[in-house]
Each structure stands twice: as structure tokens, then as C-alpha cells.
Amino acid sequence: DAMVIQNPRYQVTQFGKPVTLSCSQTLNHNVMYWYQQKSSQAPKLLFHYYDKDFNNEADTPDNFQSRRPNTSFCFLDIRSPGLGDAAMYLCATSRGQESTDTQYFGPGTRLTVL
Amino acid sequence: GQNIDQPTEMTATEGAIVQINCTYQTSGFNGLFWYQQHAGEAPTFLSYNVLDGLEEKGRFSSFLSRSKGYSYLLLKELQMKDSASYLCAVMDSNYQLIWGAGTKLIIKP
Predict the structure, then answer these.
(1) Burial of A59 (0-12, 13-18, 19+ CB in 10 A)
(2) Which of A50-59, B31-40, B92-101 has the highest mean pLDDT?
(3) Chain B residue with minimal CA distance to A55?
(4) Over residues B22-44, mean pLDDT
């Protein structure tokens, strides 16, 4: 089945210790997104890639970086996680960015910062 | 600024009908999406409306009024598995999704 896969599902890191979250997709979609979602809040868009074209949201902290080495994979790097970065990180993909291009989400990675 | 409003929490009874409302103010409009999100899981797509009116999909229906900046999600014949958060999201003029915080729906037997 075509899908969006995120690893790991649960990640624990120490305060200030770099961590990388990964996302892969078998949908062959052009666009990949990273969202941060805290409890009972709306997902907050961090970045998105249209193919290799990187788009950083204006309010995304510099502590967050992203890489998309090929169509299938996208990584989220948190250089120095703080306690406030504990959240669910959602990867999503869409065929394009037209209004009819639905975003499909992976299962998410829940990040805990100790 | 851009804003999506939906109730924080609703409670309904198994077998009943519930309507979850969403109002929006965005810079432009390219469609409205409803997603379902179970606790600790990712959102899953439910519906998309871009024209005024009602879209029916099984037990779920979604309505849109662009002139009023208003949508609702109607869930019929509620089942316990429908207990989840329901997120309303609007695609703005830049084709970015603006998300509401979600409505937590609690189903009681």
C-alpha cells in the first residue's frame, strides 16, 4: 500500500542533544511537509518542499532544519532541543499544491525532551 | 490575521447525530478540509469542500457557505470509534493550509 512512514514513532532525547526524525513516502508525491503539533493545538507548519524547492515558514526557529535528499525521504533535524520542543511531529505529503491536492499524513513521531 | 474557530469539545450519544461547526477568516479561499484525528495519531482526511453546499460521504457530511465563512461536519449514527478530534483547515490564497485547533468529540454509550 502507498503510504507515508515516520520513524521512530516515539523519540526521547536529552535537553540540547541533537535529534533527527525521518519520513519516507511511497506515494511519489511532489510536496512534503513537516508540522509540529502540541496537545490540543492545531498543527503548525514548519517547512515544506516542492520537489527540492525548500520553503521555510517565517516563524520556524533556526533550531529546526530540514533535508530532502530525494523524492522519497525527508528529515527534520532539531539541533538543540529544548523542553518546549516536546511535541508530535507530523510529516505529510501531497501530489501538488493545488486546492484539490489533499495532504496525507504519516503516523507522527512523539518527541519527549528530558 | 487568519483565523479558524471551532468548539473545543463536544459530547454526544452513541447512535445520535452531531454537528461540528467551523468559522473562518482567511486571506483568500481555495477550499476547506475536515480531518479526523484519534488521540496520539495523525490526522486522516475526511472531506473537501470548495463550492457552497452539502457533500455527503456515508455517515459523514460536510457543508460550506463561502459568503458566511462557515462550514460544518455532520456525523450520523454515531459510533464509539468516532470519538476523536475533528480539525477544520482552510487553504488560503497562497495554497497554504490554515488549521483550527480541533474539536474533541466524546461519544457516550
Answers:
(1) exposed
(2) B31-40
(3) B96
(4) 93
Residue A1 has a pLDDT of 63
Q: What is the pLDDT of residue B61?
A: 97
Average pLDDT over chain B, rounded to whole?
94
The predicted pLDDT at position B54 comes to: 96
A105/B96 touch (CB, cutoff 8 Å), yes or no = no
Residues of chain A with pLDDT under 50: none
| Model pLDDT for residues B65-84, shown as the tens digit of each residue | 999 999 999 999 999 999 99
Cell representation of residue A57? 515558514
- Report how far residue B70's alpha carbon sits from residue B27's, in angstroms, rounded to the nearest whole number: 15
Q: Which residues of A touch B101 (CB under 8 A)?
A: 40-42
Minimum CA–CA partner of B47 in chain A: A102
- 3-class SS string, chain B: CCEEECCCEEEEECCCCEEEEEEEECCCCCCEEEEEECCCCCCEEEEEECCCEEEEECCEEEEEECCCCEEEEEECCCCHHHCEEEEEEEECCCCCEEECCCEEEEEEC
Min CA distance, A106 vs chain B (Å)?
Answer: 6
B56-64 long-range Cβ contacts below 8 angstroms, 24+ apart: B60/B34, B62/B32, B62/B34, B64/B32
B106 touches chain A (CB under 8 A): no
Distance from CA of A18 to the nearest CA of B (A): 23
Answer yes or no: do A41 and B101 touch at CB < 8 A. Answer: yes
